[in-house]
Write a structure and sequence with these properties.
Layout lengths: L5 H10 L22 E5 L6 H15 L4 H7 E2 L2 E11 L13 E4 L2 E4 L4 E4 L2 H10 L3 E6 L8 H13 L2 E6 L11 H9 L2 E4 L2 E2 L8 E2 L1 E8 L2 E4 L22 E5 L9 H16 L4 H12 L5 H10 L18 H12 L5 H10 L4 H10 L7
Parallel strand pairs: 1-8, 1-9, 3-6, 3-7, 7-8
Antiparallel strand pairs: 2-3, 4-5, 10-11, 12-13, 12-14
C-alpha cells in the first residue's frame, strides 16, 4: 500500500486500533545497489557523523555475505559497492590516539578496518589510494573539507565514470557558523545526498538541538569564547586542553553560541590590513601593540565593550574572549593566511617588532597551510 503523507499513515494505523501518534521515518540500511552516490554527512562536532559511517561499514559486512545475485546488483565496472574503504585525513590523524591504527573511530567506539584503511593529505594522495584499489566500490572519506578544492571534482568524476559511492562525514560549518571553506562549498554543490545530523546543545542549562560547533578557551577554569578572527583551522582541537592557548570545542545552539569580534573584524581589523597592503602599516602596528600590551587601549576592547557591556542586553561573557593569550598573533594569522593582505616580510617584521610569540604563530600558520619561517 502507498501512503502519501503522515495523515494517511495515521488514519491507517487508527483503523488497525493504534492510537494517534507521530510517525517517524525508519532508519534504512545503506543502499549498496545504487551507483554513483556522493553522500555528505554533516553536523556539528559530536553529532555522530563518523558513527554514521561505521554503520555503513557494518551494513557492508552483512551485505558481503549475500550470494552472486546480489554481487551483480552492487558491482559496476569491477568495483563492488559492498567493499568499503576508509580514508582518514592525515591532518586529523592524531584525533583518536588511544585507538588501534586500523580503527574507524568515533566517540564511544570503533570498527577495525584491517587493510581497508588509508590516510591521505590531499586530493592527489587520495587519487593514488583510489587507483590502488579498483575493486572497492564505497569510499568513506573522513573530514573531506580538510582537503584541497580539487577533491570535490575527483569524487564527482570517479562516481560518474566508475559508479563509485562516496560517504563524506565532514564539518560544513566552521566555528564562525559559516561555510567551512571553498572545499566544503564545492562538496555541497556536487553532492547527490545530504544527511544532516544534530546534537544536544552542550550548554549546562540547555537541551535544544544544536547545529553549530562552538570554539572556546579555558582560562583559569573559565570558559572564554573564541574571537571571530581566531585561526580557521587548529589541528588537534578535538582533545581537551589545559593550555589556554589551545581551544576546546562543543556543540551549541544559536542562543548559547558566543562569537564576539565579528563587527570588529570587518569594521576595523580587515581595513587596517588593507591599509598595510597599500603600504601604510603604522595603524595596524599600533592596534596590535595595544592588543598585545595594553588591551583596554585597543579598538578591539572598545568594540566589545560597546556591543556587549554598554548595551541594552549586556553579555559580559563575550568580553572574557580578551583573556585568551596570543590575540595579536591570531589577528596576524587571519590577515596573512586567510585574507592574504600582509606580505611574509610584513608579518615577520610585525612579529619581531612587537615581540610576539613566534612559536604559536608559526604553528597556526602551518595548520592553515601557510607555513613561514622567521
Amino acid at each position: 500500500m502507498n501512503f502519501g503523507g503522515e495523515d494517511e499513515q495515521n488514519e491507517f494505523l487508527r483503523s488497525l486500533g493504534f492510537p494517534s501518534m507521530r510517525i517517524h521515518r525508519s532508519y534504512d540500511h545503506f543502499d549498496f545497489i545504487k551507483a554513483g552516490r556522493r553522500a555528505l554527512v554533516i553536523g556539528p562536532m559530536g553529532s555522530g557523523k563518523t558513527e554514521f559511517s561505521a554503520r555503513v561499514w557494518r551494513d557492508a559486512r552483512v551485505a558481503l555475505k549475500k550470494g552472486a545475485g546480489v554481487a551483480a546488483l552492487t558491482t559496476t565496472a569491477g568495483a563492488d559497492r559492498r567493499l568499503v574503504h576508509f580514508v582518514r585525513s592525515r591532518m586529523d590523524q592524531g584525533r583518536f590516539p588511544d585507538y588501534p591504527d586500523d580503527a574507524l573511530a568515533y566517540r564511544g567506539g570503533y570498527e577495525r578496518c584491517g587493510d581497508e584503511i588509508s590516510t591521505a593529505r590531499d586530493s592527489f594522495e587520495l587519487e593514488s589510494v583510489l587507483a590502488c584499489r579498483p575493486e572497492v566500490g564505497t569510499w568513506i572519506i573522513d573530514e573531506a573539507a580538510f582537503y584541497d578544492e580539487r577533491v570535490a571534482y575527483l569524487i564527482r568524476n570517479e562516481s560518474d565514470t566508475r559508479g563509485l559511492v562516496f560517504i563524506l562525514p565532514t564539518l560544513v560549518l566552521n566555528f564562525r557558523k559559516e561555510i567551512f571553506n571553498h572545499t566544503a562549498r564545492l562538496l555541497l554543490e556536487n553532492a547527490t545526498d545530504v544527511f544532516p545530523l544534530t546534537a544536544y546543545c552542550e550548554h549546562p542549562d540547555c537541551i535544544a538541538d544544536s547545529l553549530f560547533t562552538y570554539r572556546y578557551y579555558t582560562v583559569d577554569g573559565d570558559e572564554c569564547p573564541a574571537l571571530y578572527f581566531d585561526p580557521l583551522i587548529i589541528i588537534g582541537g578535538d582533545r581537551a586542553k589545559d593550555d589556554p592557548r589551545e581551544p576546546d570545542y562543543c556543540t551549541r545552539c544559536d542562543e548559547h553560541h558566543y562569537l564576539p569580534g565579528k563587527e570588529y573584524t570587518f569594521f576595523t581589523l580587515k581595513p587596517l590590513g588593507e591599509a598595510a597592503a597599500r603600504g601604510d602599516i603604522k595603524p595596524l602596528k599600533a592596534e596590535l601593540a595595544a592588543i598585545a600590551g595594553d588591551m583596554e587601549q585597543s579598538r578591539l576592547y572598545a568594540s566589545l565593550k560597546r556591543l556587549h557591556l554598554d548595551s541594552d542586553d549586556p553579555q559580559p561573557r563575550n568580553l572574557s574572549a580578551l583573556r585568551v593569550p596570543c590575540i595579536a598573533e591570531k589577528a596576524l594569522c587571519y590577515l596573512y593566511a586567510e585574507q592574504n593582505l600582509l606580505s611574509a616580510d610584513q608579518l615577520r617584521r610585525l612579529a619581531v617588532d612587537l615581540n610576539l610569540d613566534w612559536d604559536y604563530l608559526s604553528r597556526r600558520l602551518s595548520d592553515n597551510r601557510r607555513p613561514l619561517e622567521l
